[in-house]
């Protein structure tokens, strides 16, 4: 994919997504990055229309993370930016701070729900510091969400938890993402219900002929 910015939509409802994997060791080549491939695969499985993606693999540096987020929103014109890694209590974990540095408003419900999902699996979920924010420009806005670092945890927090009968027990955060994008002027994003069912009020849903 070319990094010729701003990116152009092939369709008015094409989602433009920025993916940022934050890892000192992966960015220096010590081991392969798993975050970006996991996010690409999940988005391909969950969205009915393939998104346009631009990715960045960067070290745990607050200034560099903030710069990457600004580039993806301001220059690339991403509607949604998903980060993975760097959200724990270690001194090098500075992704939340960098995300808040570029925010115009916070969306605390996303972080709260991610921790609720993860607590169903591990008690150390309370150590996670993921945040979500909106970055607003005069003519554009984007939702930025910090996700966990492990592919399994990424999927669980995005999809939520289902029972043996397939019923949703704990909603994943992505169920709220499409409507959030509607409200900030983004494209109309639809999901595959078998992966995650996007929720919109009836008044915000398009007709079947749309």
Please outline the helices and strands.
Layout: E1 16-22, H1 24-27, H2 35-46, E2 52-58, H3 62-75, E3 80-84, H4 95-101, E4 105-106, H5 108-119, E5 132-137, E6 140-147, H6 151-159, E7 160-162, E8 168-171, H7 177-183
Parallel strand pairs: 1-2, 1-3, 3-6
Antiparallel strand pairs: 4-5, 5-6, 7-8
Helix pairs in contact: 3-4, 5-6
Supply database-style keywords.
single chain; 210 residues; alpha/beta; Molybdenum Cofactor Biosythetic Enzyme, Chain A; six-stranded mixed sheet; two-stranded antiparallel sheet; globular; molybdopterin adenylyltransferase activity; MoaB/Mog_dom; EC 2.7.7.75
Helix content bin: 25-40%
Question: Numbering strands along the chain, what is their spatial order in the largest sheet?
Answer: 2-1-3-6-5-4
CATH class: Alpha Beta
Q: Please mark out the parts with pLDDT under 50 across 5 or more consecutive residues, or reply none.
A: none
Helix- and strand-based class?
A: alpha/beta
Q: At CATH's second level, what is the architecture? A: 3-Layer(aba) Sandwich
CATH superfamily: MoaB/Mog-like domain
Q: How many structural domains in the coordinates?
A: 1
- What is the arithmetic mean of pLDDT? 94
Biggest sheet features: 6 strands, mixed
Head-to-tail CA distance between termini: 30 Å
| Number of distinct beta strands | 8
How do the helices and strands follow one another from N- to C-terminus? EHHEHEHEHEEHEEH
CATH topological fold name = Molybdenum Cofactor Biosythetic Enzyme, Chain A
Function: Catalyzes the adenylation of molybdopterin as part of the biosynthesis of the molybdenum-cofactor.
Organism: Castellaniella defragrans (Alcaligenes defragrans)
Keywords: ATP-binding, Molybdenum cofactor biosynthesis, Nucleotide-binding, Nucleotidyltransferase, Transferase
Family: Belongs to the MoaB/Mog family.
């Amino acid at each position: 994919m070319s990094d010729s910015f701003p990116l152009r939509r092939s369709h008015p409802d094409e989602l433009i997504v920025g993916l940022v994997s934050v890892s000192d060791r992966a960015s220096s080549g010590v081991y392969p990055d798993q975050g970006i491939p996991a996010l690409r695969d999940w988005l391909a499985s969950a969205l009915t229309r393939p998104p346009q993606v631009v990715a960045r693999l960067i070290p745990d540096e607050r200034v560099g993370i903030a710069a990457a987020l600004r580039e993806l929103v301001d220059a690339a014109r991403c509607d949604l930016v998903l980060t993975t890694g760097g959200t724990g209590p270690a001194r090098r974990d500075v992704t939340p701070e960098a995300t808040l540095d570029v925010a115009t408003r916070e969306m605390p419900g996303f972080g709260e729900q991610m921790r609720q999902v993860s607590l169903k699996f591990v008690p150390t979920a309370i150590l996670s510091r993921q945040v979500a924010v909106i970055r607003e420009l005069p003519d554009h806005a984007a939702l930025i969400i910090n996700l966990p670092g492990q592919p399994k945890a990424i999927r669980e927090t995005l999809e939520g938890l289902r029972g043996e009968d397939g019923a949703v027990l704990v909603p994943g955060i992505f169920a709220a993402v499409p409507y959030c994008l509607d409200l900030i002027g983004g494209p109309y994003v639809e999901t595959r219900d078998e992966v995650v069912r996007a929720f919109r009020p009836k008044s915000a849903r398009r007709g079947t002929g749309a």
